[in-house]
UniProtKB/TrEMBL annotation:
Family: Belongs to the UPF0239 family.
Transmembrane segments: 24-44
Organism expressing this protein natively: Apteryx owenii
Lineage: superkingdom: Eukaryota
The keyword Membrane belongs to this UniProt entry's keyword annotation: yes
Gene Ontology, cellular component aspect: membrane
Name by which UniProt lists this protein: Mannosidase beta like
Keyword terms, alphabetized: Membrane, Transmembrane, Transmembrane helix
InterPro entries: UPF0239
Amino acid sequence: MAAELDFSPPEIPEPTFMENVLRYGLFFGAIFQLICVLAIILPVSKSHKTDLENFESKSSEAVKKPKATAPQTSKKPKKETKKKR
């Protein structure tokens, strides 16, 4: 009875090139998603925030300069689209 049982490992075919590409592509995609999620969860460093505040104050000063008024476009009355009966 012991001679009838076959305990040898089953034959598994070698993975093809496209299966390897798919496996490693999914692996790198998962790593990329984890990096993106961590970038959202983890707070931004203080030095980066101060750089942004300095940039915003400089840009707001540039906006405060007087601007030339743009000519207003005159609105034409809309044509009636309904047919008169």
